[in-house]
Amino acid sequence: MVVILRESPRAVTAGNMELLPIPAFDDNYIWLLRDPTGRALVVDPGDATPVLEALGDSPPPHAILVTHHHGDHIGGVEALLRRWPGTPVHAPQDARIPVASQRVAEGDSLAIGPWRFHVLAVPGHTRSHVAYHGEGLLFCGDTLFSLGCGRMFEGTPAQ
Q1: HSE of 123, CA atoms in CB hemisphere, 13 A
Q2: How is the beta sheet containing 12-14 ordered, strand by strand?
Q3: Alpha-carbon distance 28 to 46, whole Å?
Q4: Backbone torsion region of residue 141, taken as left when φ is above 0, otherwise alpha when ψ lies between -120 and 50, otherwise beta
Q5: Whole-angstrom Cα distance, residue 158 to residue 131?
Q6: What are phi and psi for residue 49, nearest 5 degrees?
Q7: How would you classify residue 26: left for phi > 0, otherwise alpha for psi between -120 and 50, otherwise beta?
Q8: Rounded to an integer, what distance in angstroms lies between the CA atom of residue 116 and that of residue 109?
C-alpha cells in the first residue's frame, strides 16, 4: 500500500493496518498505525492529548517513532510514557531527544508489532532527522510536505 495525500488526510485501512492521521496544532499530524488487535504505533506525537483521545482504552502502543527533536514532534512523548510506561521510543541519535529508549540511524531495520521499517537519514530540516520507510509508508517528519520540502534549519539542500 502506498498512500499519496492530495487533500486532508483520512484514515486508510489495508491488510494488517489502519493508518489514522490525528490533527495537532495548526498544521501538524500525528500518525497512528493500528494492527488488528488495536495496538498502535505512534509517530511524532507533538501533543499527547489527541493521541490519548484516539487510543482511549486501547492496549499500550507497540512503540513510538520520532523523526526529529522539534517540540511539535516530541512534545507529547513524556505524557504518553506516563500513561504507558516502558513503551519503546525510537529516535535519532540526538541529545535533544532525551525521551528515546532506542537510538536509530541510517540503515537500521525495525520490527515493531507486525510491521517492518527501515531507517533513512534525511538531514536538512535538522541534522539528525530520520525517516521510517516500510509497509508501503514513509514517515518523514518535516522532510516532505504536500507542496514541497520542509524548511532547512540545520542542514543544506545537498544533504
Answers
A1: 11
A2: 12-14, 17-24, 28-34, 40-43, 63-65, 89-92, 102-104
A3: 9
A4: left
A5: 17
A6: -55, -50
A7: alpha
A8: 7
Bridge partners (DSSP) listed for residue 149 = 144
Nearby residues of 21 by Cβ (< 8 Å), 6 or more positions away: 9, 10, 11, 29, 30, 31
pLDDT in tens, 60-105: 999 999 999 989 899 999 999 999 999 999 999 999 999 999 999 9
pLDDT digits (tens, 9 = 90+) for 25-61: 888 889 999 999 999 999 999 999 999 999 999 999 9
Cell of 120: 533513512
Helix or strand (DSSP H, E) at 24: strand 17-24
Whether the CB-CB separation of 113 and 41 falls below 8 Å is answered with yes
Q: 107-142 as b/e, with b when 16 or more CB fall inside 10 Å?
A: ebebebbbbebebbbbbbbbbbbbbbebbebbbbbb
**Location of C-alpha cell 534549519:** 153
Q: Which grid coordinates belong to 107?
A: 540503515
